[in-house]
């Protein structure tokens, strides 16, 4: 399992990638949180979240396509409209 996170406008945002190729995208507010789940693929150094509605579901906190930096400690969105996500490996 690998966890990536960032903060935006008082929201704490997490993306957890599980070994069975599923993910959880969560954003926490002061008094509630929302979690969205789906499948993912990793092709070479690219992470693709296989949930077509991830952008609208998460109010543009997540996109569906990221590039891993080396050594896979950050997720870099292909579009500059989205935040860089820092990684915390939890294996």
Structure description:
The chain has 91 residues and is mostly beta strands. 4% of the residues lie in helices and 54% in strands. It is built from one helix and eight strands; from the N terminus they run E-E-E-E-E-H-E-E-E. It has one helix spanning 54-57; strands at residues 2-8, 11-17, 22-28, 33-43, 46-49, 65-68, 74-77, 85-89. It has an eight-stranded antiparallel barrel. Strand 4 (33-43) and strand 5 (46-49) form a beta hairpin. The termini are close together. The relative contact order is 0.24.
Strand-helix topology:
Layout: E1 2-8, E2 11-17, E3 22-28, E4 33-43, E5 46-49, H1 54-57, E6 65-68, E7 74-77, E8 85-89
Antiparallel strand pairs: 1-2, 1-8, 2-3, 3-4, 4-5, 5-6, 6-7, 7-8
Summary tags:
about 90 residues, mainly beta, eight-stranded antiparallel β-barrel, 1 helix, about 5% helix, about 55% strand
């Amino acid at each position: 399992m690998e966890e990536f996170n960032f903060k935006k406008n008082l929201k704490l945002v997490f993306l957890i990638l599980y070994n069975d190729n599923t993910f959880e995208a969560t954003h926490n507010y002061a008094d509630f949180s929302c979690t969205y789940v789906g499948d993912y693929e990793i092709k070479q150094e690219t992470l693709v979240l296989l949930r077509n509605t991830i952008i609208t579901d998460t109010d543009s906190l997540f996109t569906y396509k990221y590039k891993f930096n080396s050594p896979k400690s950050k997720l870099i969105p292909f579009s500059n409209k989205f935040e860089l996500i820092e990684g915390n490996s939890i294996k």
